[in-house]
Amino acid sequence: MKHLHRWMPTLLLVTGVGLLIPLGIRQVLRTPEESRPLAAVMLGAYLAWMLLESRVTLRETRKPTAERDSATLELYAVGRLATILLAVAFPTLEQGPVPRAVGLFCFIAGVSLRLTAIRTLGRAYSHRVRLPDASLLVTGGVYRKLRHPAYTGMLLAHVGYLLVFPAVPGLAVFVLLFVPAVLLRIRHEERLLLGSFPGYAEYAASRKRLVPWLW
């Protein structure tokens, strides 16, 4: 069971890539001609992002299983995969190339923010929630402005993805499952951080979680 638990992120990644390629190609081909290049770029960019983060996913298989994840990763990953796959499995709402271009911009901005946050965390970053090393509280870089910029980037990227592929089932799963899974994960992480870092409460009091000036 522990072995399956350790390999679960990799299994979900392989499943996601394996299904996204054929479903995404079909969706691109049925996208209106004037928007098809944007859809093709979006599909290629999303797959490239998944492969880029696969290095982190594979590292998870070599880490100890002493995480405090409480299955939040599985819920988060299922919500993400369901969002991206349903968005390309069903016909999209009719819209022109301008909203799709805005979506592609949001996607690039979101992924850039997320990768910057991961790079800032360095060895403190993990897909799973683990008991943190007391010396690894990161408050610099993008963490000067937000407590969870990696999740901000993740959500912004998927808002962009759904503007390019606005299928109703994908939009529904994003709102009803993926976003709540991210919020649940944030709450879980913060409880652990508050109990592990004496200075975290002071740090958190001066920064919003996901959106500057709002929350």
Automatic annotation (TrEMBL):
<keyword id="KW-0472">Membrane</keyword>
<keyword id="KW-1133">Transmembrane helix</keyword>
<dbReference type="GO" id="GO:0032259">
    <property type="term" value="P:methylation"/>
</dbReference>
<feature type="transmembrane region" description="Helical">
    <location>
        <begin position="158"/>
        <end position="184"/>
    </location>
</feature>
<dbReference type="InterPro" id="IPR007269">
    <property type="entry name" value="ICMT_MeTrfase"/>
</dbReference>
<protein>
    <submittedName>
        <fullName>Isoprenylcysteine carboxylmethyltransferase family protein</fullName>
    </submittedName>
</protein>
<dbReference type="Pfam" id="PF04140">
    <property type="entry name" value="ICMT"/>
</dbReference>
<feature type="transmembrane region" description="Helical">
    <location>
        <begin position="98"/>
        <end position="117"/>
    </location>
</feature>
<keyword id="KW-0808">Transferase</keyword>
<feature type="transmembrane region" description="Helical">
    <location>
        <begin position="36"/>
        <end position="52"/>
    </location>
</feature>
<dbReference type="GO" id="GO:0004671">
    <property type="term" value="F:protein C-terminal S-isoprenylcysteine carboxyl O-methyltransferase activity"/>
</dbReference>
<dbReference type="InterPro" id="IPR052527">
    <property type="entry name" value="Metal_cation-efflux_comp"/>
</dbReference>
<feature type="transmembrane region" description="Helical">
    <location>
        <begin position="73"/>
        <end position="92"/>
    </location>
</feature>
<keyword id="KW-0812">Transmembrane</keyword>
<dbReference type="GO" id="GO:0016020">
    <property type="term" value="C:membrane"/>
</dbReference>
<keyword id="KW-0489">Methyltransferase</keyword>
